[in-house]
## 1
Amino acid sequence: MPQTSCQHLIRYYLACYQADNRDLTFFNVFHRNCEQVKFVAGEEQLITTQLPRLPLQRKHGAKLLDTQTLYKREKTLLYGSFLVTGKLPASYQGNRSVCAPLIYYHAAVSLDNDEYYLNIDHSKPIVNWPLLRWIMADGQNYSEPDFIRKGISARDVAKFSHWLTSQTNAINCLELYLYPKLQNEGDIKAKLSDIKDGEFNLTSASCISVLKYSLASRGILHDLKTIAAEDVMPAAFTEFLTGKKPPIQETIKPHSYETTKVTLKPAQTENIPGLLSQAQSQAIENVAQYPVSQIIGPPGTGKSYTIACLALERYLQGESTLIVGQNNDSVNVVADKLEALLGQKDFVMRVGNASYHKKLKAYVDDLLNGFFSASEESVQQREQIQQQKRLLDKLEKRFAKRCHKAIRYGNATWQANQRGTLWSKIKAWSAKRATLRHDSLYEIFGQITQQHKVKDKLLSYYISQSKRERLFQVLQDHRLQLQQFQRAIKAQNSAKQAANFEKIDFSILLQAMPVWLGTLGDLHRSIPLQQELFDLVIIDEASQCDIASVLPAIYRAKHVVVVGDPKQLRFLSFLSSQKQAQLQYRHYLDATTDEHNYRTKSALDLAGQHIHQQSAISVLDEHFRSKSALIDFSNRKFYHNQLKLMRHKPGYQESSPLHLQFGEGQYQNGRNREEAIRLLSHLNQQLKDYQQKGLCPSIGILSPFREQSLLLHKLIHRSMDPQDIKRFNIKVATAYGFQGDERDVMYLSMCVDKACKGAQYRYMNREDVFNVAITRARDEQFVFLSVPEHKIHSHSLLFDYVQSALRQNLNDLNETSSFDAFQGEVERLLTLKGVQSWKNYPIAGAELDLVCRYQDRVIALDLIGYPGESQDYFHLSRYKIFQRAGVLVYPLTYTRWYYQKHSVVKEILTLLAAQQVNTPEELVQPETVAIEQESADATSSPQPAREEKAANHPNNQLESQRPTPNEQKDMTAKLPHGLTGSVPGKRVSKQQEKAADTVIEKGTNTLEPIKEVAREGIITDDNTAFTERGKHKSQHEVASPQVNDAPTSLGKAMLEKSLDKKGP
């Protein structure tokens, strides 16, 4: 696409934004947002083209010219005619009085021969469509008259009246025939005082006014006009807008035509203080590889956490990041994630509404006033982090190596048990010796987990201190730049601010303040419009952003990441298709294609359209928010069952968290009062139950219909205690109000009744609306319906959703599937201890060999080394995924189980806190458990008893304070080794060696079925018979045997002696 096409596209999107933006529309000329209002007396001569420009009184003209010069961004001068007077319906939130022009023009004041004139462009009239939409019936087709583009004369009144009548019958047009004679301000105010609800009149009147832009609109409009005047565009901006890369990817230095190649440093995901999924890591790596990349984040998949990690990773690379969204809600969540990762609040600079702007000014004031202390030297911290990385790398390699060996050892043990050949016994003895000599895989994984926590703590502290170090350096060397920035953000008008921004080298400020968050419309208040000012710009919730709004932010970017979900809510456009076609024709764009469809394409859509490498798109696939039953329908219907349900665990499905509440009710004009009352009654009862149980969940109430949500909001606030509303954080809104939000418990009011037809279901059948509506709940959801399930419209999403909920069999677990021998024996022994187990249970997108549950504790077993299903092992990255899902994984090798069955069971019970399960005590025959007794070998050096494994459990949290160097040294030196009774490193006596050889000789198969002995109250454990008599002995008599996890050192003579005996 030619370079000039970029400017054409910018001007096109600017025109669409102006025509579509609600903030640029009159609703009441007497509102405080309208200034310097002056009604035109006599007859209309400007719109009728009788005068090319309208003369102004000197005083009035001078004042308008000053406003036009000083407040280019903040205010706009408008000339409006054909005023609509009346009152909006009660559902309109705000001042309902209407006195607004139906047609208006952007105007400009000129000074000619010491006379002031008002000028308009007759070819660019703007119809007040947002106002008309409140007056007209829903579903109305909108059309715009062509004749108004050449001026509106008295002869056009009939056409104008006919056109308006074709749009709506709600407006009385009789007074229109007075045109071009104009009514004065007094006449208009008199009409307003007598108006009744639902009455609208069209009056022949014209006025000049200065309209204050909303903060969001003023910056975007001004920035787009400035960008459209530029000759050269940034590379990422051009690729996003046109889909084509410039011949040479380059960046433009401010105030210069000198170019340098754009490069971002390669990502180093290991620097992030936290666990990342594969998709999150890929998204972070894509930032440096592609000028434009995309992150697709379905509901509850950690979009905000990923964005926070992106910003941190770029910061550690010495680069700057700007994070923007359409509203403060989304960027507030990102700010919270950054605060949680780092434990500090002043890491990011916030721009936004008046309160955020005030905080920014106060922060800069404090810096310049000396309320700031220098940081500690970060060189030593960097060295500590590098040492910690080397230690982790060593531990992770050790874990992988041991897993590989565990497979080999398991095969050797199994073959010796099955074949009994000399060579297989030698290999089995070697496997046994190697297995029992080292720490278990779980102990190594525990060490890795703990050292990751140490590394994350060091990284968080280093990030905090390095920011202070950079800030201190800027204060020392570039204080004048901060002072200039202080004056710029305190400027009273855009002209003064622009003059101050021109004097600032913003790259210096970004060294001290590299991470910024704000809304798209508020960037102009604190950040100058400079090409490629930030190394990275992230657009959050991009499906809710129109294309025009994001262009000023992307213009400031070297690389851009667009984040959102095409299956969730999109932005709302008031632009008619006819108006859009006219704008496309005016800007030489093809209106027959969908390529430049402003009305339906979001910023997320445009990025996806112009990204040509599939690898530049990352899809977050780990769902953390909801219980599996609450996200199941959305996962299957909209996401092709690709989401890994991180909260899906066995044993929690006894009662469904999804409740369908059928009852009576009647739909009328978007409301169902009976259903609203039923919902409120149920809610009051639930609140009483929660209070009795001491629970305080957050609660949301959602209806797809605006009128129903307004009714619910009114009933809630009339009937409930305000303290309860605050305590339970109760929110009532439509799907649009809940986008990006969530609650512990959600109430849905679907509103439709059995008399409703397709028209009422049409809005709910929008996939983005329905998807957002049903995926806001974390723990429980109540769906209120006024129609039986068989009466719901069969071709609706609601019908599919209800049928899915009715069909769900949440207890359909894989309990009857066959176990292999290894799985079977582990499961049986744990069952006798009162632990419930599931085989090949799916969690976080993978099937675990065994998932065990006792009370509310869950542990997963990764069985390794037994030939068959249990032979392979999960990669360490998969262990980390399970960790993020809140599941502790215990890697259990077949060889260790074969020789230390009792010790392993004891470890698992300890982790499940299930030691007190009331099961029969086991008796241990001394002669058969010699290898599990504590070694008395005099040649082995004594070792101190080790701490309990639970003390070093991977889920334990470190102290919130920064680890001191001594503490870090201690943590590195004193790595966890195991549970009580585990004493690696000791050697066993010859008596024990002999016992071990006896076990090999007899070839007792530990995996023989034990159903028969179990029926008699006897179980087989470590080749030992446990009898029912153990129940009658005291705890002192049948105390748990002391376990020695040390290797057995077989002597040559013992080996030869054992091999002379018969094999199995």
## 2
Amino acid sequence: MKIFQRGFLYFNFCVFVFGCNIDKPKLFELQNLDSIGINFSNDLTFSNDFNVYKYRNYYNGGGVSLGDINNDGLVDIYLTANQKQNRLFLNQGNFSFKDITKSSGVKGEKAWATGVTMVDINSDGFLDIYVCNSGDIKGDNKQNELFINNGDLTFTERAKEYGLDDRGFSTHATFFDYDKDGDLDAYILNNSYQAIGSFDLRRNERPKRDSLGGDKLMENIDGKFYDASEKAGIYGSVIGFGLGVSVGDVNGDNWEDIFISNDFFERDYLYINQKNGTFKEELTNQMKSISGASMGADMADLNNDGFNDIFVTEMLPSNYQRLKTVTTFEDWNKYQYVLKNGYHHQFTRNMLHLNNGNDTFSEIGRWSGVEASDWSWGALFFDMDNDGFKDLFIANGIYQDLTNQDYLQYVASEEVIKSVISNNQVDYKRLVDIIPSNKVPNHSYRNTGDLGFEAFVNSGLNIPSFSNGSAYGDLDNDGDLDLVVNNVNTPLFVFKNQAESLKNNFIKIKLKGTSKNLNSLGAKIEIKTALTQIFHEVQPVRGFQSSMDLISTIGVGKSEKIDLKIIWPSGKTKIINGLAVNSLYEFEEANADFIEEKQSEKKLIFKKDIQDYFPIHKENNFVDFHSDRLNYHMLSTQGPKISIADLNGDGKNDIVFPGAKGFASQILFSQGDKWISNEKNNELLEKNNESEHIESAILDVDNDGDLDIYMTSGGVETSIYSTSLYDVLLLNDGSGVFSRSDQNLPEDNHKISSESVSYADIDSDGDFDLFIGERSKIGEYGLPGSGYLLVNDGLGNFKNLTDSLAPNFKNLGMITDSAFFDFDDDDDKDLIVVGEFMGINFFENNNGYFSLVDTKWKQKTGWWNTIDIFDIDGDGLKDIIIGNHGTNSRFKASLEEPILCYYNDFDGNGRGEGVLAFTAENNKEYPYALRHNLIDQMKSLKKKFPNYEAFKNADLTKIFSKKLLKDSYVCSVNTLSTTALKNNGNFNFTKIELPKQVQFSPVYSITHSDIDNDGDLDILMGGNLFNVKPEVGIYDASYGLFIENTSQGLKYHPNGKGFNISGEIRSLVVDKNQVWVGRNRDTLSRFTFKK
């Protein structure tokens, strides 16, 4: 549990209150506990000596374990309680249970039970029960307990004898054979003893071992467990705040790996099994961002591609009112501070890490729609409806919500502090009694089969509660998975699944392994149906503090026959084809064989060059958010957009590499295998290093037969009066030595922050003219910039003729890219311009005069970034792809519910601000900013909204006057998807479907080439954006995209056929059989491919 944390996301009126569709039958039916013979509630009783202020994990709740303890074919239930006895309920069939806690001897004698696991620890054929304990702060009564099954419905506690009586604040434990010696080892997940406020984040204590309270990997040696953590490479430090442990094969090598989710400030861990008894912690190399304060987790294959994906819960509310009352986020400075001190990119939201199958993950929780579920504990992936896809259940709720912002402000007041302290004693009861207590609905999501999830409105599981541990299993042997949920101060939930009414089929598999791993933990099950394949791993410990039934119940949809493959941890394999469904099958490892499988080689097209002489793009330390508190994305990190051409006439292409403010741009000449610069050019470029150069264009401006360079000067780091905002024109002397033109571009006294430059001979006079796009008004985010049409006199002298030839360019928008092309086939160059809060604007060229074409795409406003024009479908007409923000984002937009930006001087201080808002289902507009963020920018609002409760329902009309809103400049966004347009001629376009992976991150560069030599043009894309406010989280899911153009359409390749690169890609340029990649704050990179 975390006391001071943060959270965020959607406005939600009915989806997770789940008042909609109430007449439809529910998939799960909540059972009456009295009628099924279960009486259990994890009730907590206040004590001034032990409460949520004394013990931070006070409301973390208990766990659930399901398993057949007496081998009668019925799944039994074990429940942990924090202050009361643990309970064991024997399944008597027909959803009838008997409490055998007392007679079985498993009530537990230690303090504060947490997680529980059923495992056959001694391989006698009977499930034992391992209970983790915690909570006993002052004493020594929290050793974990191991109840050995005597085979007669009685158990004997023997944890010390087995070496498993751990004395840490244990959360959970899992058992698996990490060293493949045939027996089960253990991982004990612990939660640090030390108070959160006592840590100094400047001291990274991760490598420092805490032998008592740290996590432990316990090696099984002849039936007794010994701590092997240090030699195996497992962290066991005082900053480990483990709340979730997941074991499974992450990289497909048939060795089990470990994922640990840590609460508070410590990052999660991803341990990759090195197959030699050790692990390598790889999280920061494979996951670019993670949850800020991780809680429960689950590992499963969500898209049936054979690779385990990982889901982690956090505390981001899905309900708008709760978001506005219980949420705060780290600011930029704190975020940078923790990064600097060895932590990671950690953000307040659930994370869905999609396994790319190449030792990388892409975080797609926002795209999949599962990033916000409130105070979430356990996450479980299981097929609720037997359609062959794993759905998602999230247990939610905190009995007393210590993150309520009004409560925190109240108890921090001097008056309250004085009232609760008397004679140096704190009246904790008074403090605790006033903490708000609000039940939060549990969340369930249906897997749509395409990596997306939709709210499972009629699941019957979404009951407001204070839920914690949960477990699934087929309690009534009807072929679907039932669910048991442990709650704080609320009776247990037992849900009967009624999926049989859907007429989907299933298969049940029970495995028998070797003598020391009888239940085959770690085995893999692969099922092939006529329509899909399904992957499952036998690993019962999942979610939060709980373990599942060991029999695998797997939905197969409408399939009536399946092919089955089982791989045991030893490597033995069993293949059975044509199995009938709706039956239980038992398979023994003894009857399996070692089958040598041919590993299919992944044919790669691209090869990355490893060179140490490529330049590195650097950025200055400017932080946009210090001057523009209400913006979410930095505008100062847009480069470098490189250009390539032969600048010195030697027949080899050279590179123009734009530099950020304070760092000179570079002109690099190809010389053999190396790239060199010219001293005179370096001196010239150093003189211009105060400009933020973003984009470059290479063209012959003066018709002297050599190529010159135009560089835009943009960013927001500069005063609007600075001459460094003038664009730079570099004239070539013919040998690759450049001098700066004395022109102030785009025009004298027009110092603009520009980004886009495009060129064409617009007036057919034999020289190149220019379009320059203004990216932003410095200090006035939300106001539109202008486009500039610069006409060439043939000698490289440019005149701004925008007013006479292109008046529509004025106040066009926040322009990011442009391109000239003859869209109407009349032998002159028309123009396309896109930008932030802009539509797709086409301008028709009529004898050098540009007029805006009225197309439906002009209404498709987005956060557009880049344009690429080429013939996608081979019909001879050039099509268009426009890179956009993407849909893996907190920001959502549609025609009905657009994003809005209101610009005005709202507080009357002489300086305007842009306020971002979204349109909710009730058609009202609400600010994205939290109360304290708005007040930081506009102090006068504090009087209007004295507390968070007053602010939680305030739409823009309640925050600002109607006159202020009416007088504001308003721009909007209604589409965030990167979009491809098929050219039907004469400015008529229709949409081309792109692979969904394109939308996982912002796209900043697109290029094309016939990569695979099949006669059509393939596509390369790149993007990502890291310099954003922590509350929205970095956009990092892309590793570059190779999209193959096939006869069946555009095909995405998960491994990019070798085109795989991390970072913020800003430019992609193809030069023959080479792809150059320009990245912000990173090394220029090159890939080669066979031509």
## 3
Amino acid sequence: MVMIGESSLRRSARKVAVRHPLEEAAGADDDSGVFGSSDLDSGADDDSGHVAAQLYCICRKPDDGELMVQCDACSQWFHAACMRLSEKTVTDDWKCPTCVSSRSERPPQSASTRNVDPPATGPAREEAGHAGIPAKDRDSCRTALCKVISQDLASAVEDAVLHTVAGEARLAEASKLYKAKMREILFNLKSNTKLRQSLTEGVLSPASLAAKDVSLLADPELIASRNEERRQSLTSRLKVAEEEEDELQASVRPQTLPAAQADIVLAGNPAVELLSAPSDHAVKESDVARPNVPEVSDEMDAIEIDETPVMEPPETLSYQESLTAETSQYDWTGTLAVTATDPGFRLRGNITEPGTANDRKRLSKLPSALYVHGRINPSAVHKFIMQVHAVAVSVPEAERHRHKRIVLVEYFLPPDSPADEANCALFVKQYRDRARIPVLDFVDQGILLYFGASTVVGAALLLRSSTLPYGLPPLDRITTPCFRPALELGLAEHAAEVASVVEDRSAPTFENTVVALERAGQPLAQCRAVFNSLLASNTNDELDALDTEMAPKFAAHTDSIFLNKALYNRVRDASPPPEDDIESQRLRERYLTMFERRGAALSEPAINEMRHINEHLSKLAAQFRQAVLKATNDCAVVVDDVALLDGLSPGDIASAAAAASQRGLPAGRYALTLVNTTTQPALASLKNREVRRKLFEASRARCSDGACDTRPIIVEMAQLRARMAQLLSYPNYASYVIADETASSVNDVNAMLRRLIGPAHANAERERADLERCAGDELGGDRLQPWDWAFYANRLQKQLFDFSDDDVRPYFEVNRVLKDGVLFAANRFYGITFKQRNDLPTYHKDVMVFELFNEDGSPLGMLLADYFARSNKQGGGWMDSYIEQSKLLGHPHAIVLNNLNVPVPAEGEPALMIFDEVTTAFHEMGHALHGLFSNVKYPLFSGTSVPRDYVEYPSQLNEMWATDPAVLSNYARHHKTGDPMPQALLSKVISARRFNQGFATTEYLAAAILDQAWHQISPTNVPDSANVAEFERNALQAAGISDFFVPRYRSPYFSHIWSSATGYAAGYYAYIWSEVLARDTQSWIGEQGGLRRTNGDVLRGKVLSKGFACDPLSAFKDLKGGPPDIAPLLDYRGLRDASVAV
């Protein structure tokens, strides 16, 4: 084996290449002769200074870092996964499927496998390389093409087709796509003289011909002939399809059909204010024009209609923006209608005359009509069809055997409007290219769709606006099967909306481009908000599998927008909004920044590589989330003797018994479950040192081996992020991230961390010495270990302040903390009031719902509180949004969700919290208020949509009320007697605020250092998975943190930075950066009189309501009257004295 790289070691006839593509482009030849000058030419730099990504395999994608194999016959490289091979199954004489099928006789060569980058190929055209197309098929197609155009031109066209189809399918489909494309090109070149002339004269390039749907360039007479054929065959197609449906229904239909039930009845559309008012005359059967479709069977006619709708119709089917938009190439004026008037339910196209008001009035009188009339563009029509689909999929699964699922959506044009007719034809073509719903046929005046029996119940619940208060999603009715069709339809609709912006032929303006993008994709955003929330709060295996499947689709969808050069150019060239409209000016600037940071300004090869990186990162993040959740559940420590749990409260022991029972363990077993941090809450109470050690080691070692080992995942994610930064001309990923934060530069972040590590670590070492003295002889001559810290800190706290967590826990009952603490503080400071809504639906019985009001009684929004831990819920605390405030979208109020992970008590026992959990409840309420107080126009700027190192500012500030005497005395009451916490104990809780802050600050800073270490390195410096622990040790030692202090999160379970494609990656420092702002504001509030309404109004008006509509630091300076001061933070954490020497 020849190792190609820094050294060469010959071992056998097989070789493994480990060179990076940049090294290959540099021309560092190896002794096999694979690299040479031709390879250097093919890898030349593009105009942005980046090396073009080499494409390989039948998938025509870059090297992804995984195993690749080289064909023994054609010497082409393939991804092993695409070939369904592994390092164990590949043979020394392996040949690719194309070479096998072509039966080529070649001198035998050795097969090659490798784990990193294959050698680049030269520019010479390879006969076998190929996208997996059999040579006989290629010869046949090329020969036929040579009869129409020259041989050289035919070869160029064929090459372009190969590159086009290679990226669209795997091996099983590549040949089929190739032949279909070549037949289409051949047919049109033969029949269309102008097309052939454009190609031979160079007006149309082979690449453009292969990339376009050449039916657009077909001869007009041929198009007319095909349309006539479709018109003539429509009736027969419908008849055949319905006969097949009847056969299917007969095979699954129950023996008796219940009477008085309609299959589907579409309720009347209430949003028809754009049309003329309905007339009073009764609608007769003769008044309704019928399309040329078969009548329903007599059996179906006999079913009695129940006029009660199965589900309400979408609230809005007429889209104001589509009726008033400027005419584009694909606009036309006309009417679209779908009606349900037949018993047994058949969606029927209803042709109307748009120029006749009476016809529109008749439509509005039909109780089951869906229609849109006016100036129509593809986006509006696509939305309309999505609404039809949303109604169709609402049919209960048990009822589907009774439904005909053929839908004819017809449109009618005014007479003598040839321009509109041409635009309609263009739209039909466009819709065919993008349709996600199975299409039976297209005619010049209709689209025939088919909704099969596999459509899933409830997709409409996710895509349409909810009728519940504030738009709360019907969480009790949304089930796992709802998500797939809803997400796919949402993606399709958003893509159509974006396409309508790109294809708009009018001059780009702020309104028709930037604002149009802001409006687009709302059904998808609504669906994803629920989907992502349930993934974190109440997941299951099906949701996790769907998350894994959809993650790369979401990434590709985002890339299709922000890596779209045409769209980027349109945004860049759009006329600006008025100068006095500051928020709109900022929106335009922000969109340009987002496009450029995503890579829209890069060369095409670099953009393709960015797409690959983004897709792969999304897949890896989903794998990481699921592995961490499984490991956290699987690594619970099980004990079989209750005596080993000495020190835990009876409630904690009962919870451990319940956890063991849920895992199927026999009675007498107890399971100590893990939370997401390294240090576990039970360590503060467990007296048995060996049990403490096992619990700590289980926490620290999770995700580092076995089936849930995340180390290979995080290593690959670090490499991909580093490569992304290189493509965008940043030295590392941290520099890329922080450039868009309030910190502005990596140097600023590193300087702040260094300034804090010294005093924090010094304090922690003093605290360690204090704890060892407290432990005395109990350590048996051993030094204090990490698993001992929480136990002896709890004891020392009791000695110094005469209380421990166990002493105060009875005073922190969950409901009282929430209502008399968290919400009480919001009332006193901001004047808001709340009302619990037990009548509204939730996804779990533990979730509480509160309606919130401003001081004047006007509605503010809605808060959901999910405070209890579950095995299918991620750890920690966080805030989600179901609805974000936006004036543009007509969302005046937000709906937010707060999550905690308080252990579920045994049946009949109270739910009690430790003080850290109380503080977390106040913290998450700070996030909630940030979202609820939002008062912006554009959704991009709403609420918490601010930089990472600013978003924690409001939440950390809100923590101050947890220890405010007036607030603490209101919620700290004994769960049995209701008596307030004794004043002496209350004073001790407040005075103990700085206790153990050296350790707490150090374990946080250690995690922040790891985050920066992973993201301030180049791709070549990322360690392999076996050396992750060594990488961590080196990073912490370099920062001055000893091995004793374990980070709050170790890399393998550091969800903040690995659980999403971006998340808090290179941004975990944000908590301490934001806390500088929070403690400085806390000092300002104290100077202004503390818990006063006037202070709350100022904070709400100048900071919390602004979102990202203004510069965050400018908002802070406007509140404080100057830049942030770090001194209050040093005082708060007890670091000022220790920081003098820094």
